[in-house]
Amino acid sequence: MSKEQFFGPVLRYFRKERGLSQDELAARVDVSRSHIGRLETGEKQPSLKMLFRLAEAMDVPASAVLAEMERFSAEKRGA
């Protein structure tokens, strides 16, 4: 599994940790709920601009999102 495939699970992790529904996050970044769903399932990958918008909407540094992707990747390799 490539590292970018971990974006979806990481997005879902931070969204749920912040107590946000897909609808709430979508409204904060002005996209559809289905777009958030496609990002979370890995059907779509975010642009760099969208990554920063999502991180800001969840009050998470973009660097934390990337670090968590690295952690998920390392755990998967070690499993």
Task: Explain how this protein is built.
- The protein is an all-alpha fold.
- It contains five helices and no strands.
- The protein has helices at 7-17, 22-29, 33-41, 48-57, 62-78.
- The longest helix is centred in the last third of the chain and has 17 residues, at 62-78.
Please outline what is shown here.
This protein has 79 residues and is mainly α. It is 70% helix and 0% strand.
Keyphrases for this structure?
mainly alpha; 79 residues
List the SSEs and their pairings.
Blueprint: H1 7-17, H2 22-29, H3 33-41, H4 48-57, H5 62-78
Helix pairs in contact: 1-3, 1-5, 2-3
- Tell me the major beta sheet: none
**H/E series:** HHHHH
Q: Roughly how much helix do the residues carry, as a percent range?
A: 55-70%
Number of helices: 5
Strand percentage lies at under 5%
In one word, what is the shape? Answer: globular
Taking Cα atoms only, what radius of gyration do you get, to the nearest Å? 12 Å
Overall pLDDT level: 93
Q: Uncertain runs with pLDDT below 50, 5 residues or more? A: none
Task: Give the quaternary arrangement of the chains.
Answer: single chain
Calculate the terminal CA-CA distance, rounded to whole Å.
Answer: 12 Å
Alpha-beta content class: mainly alpha
Number of strands: 0
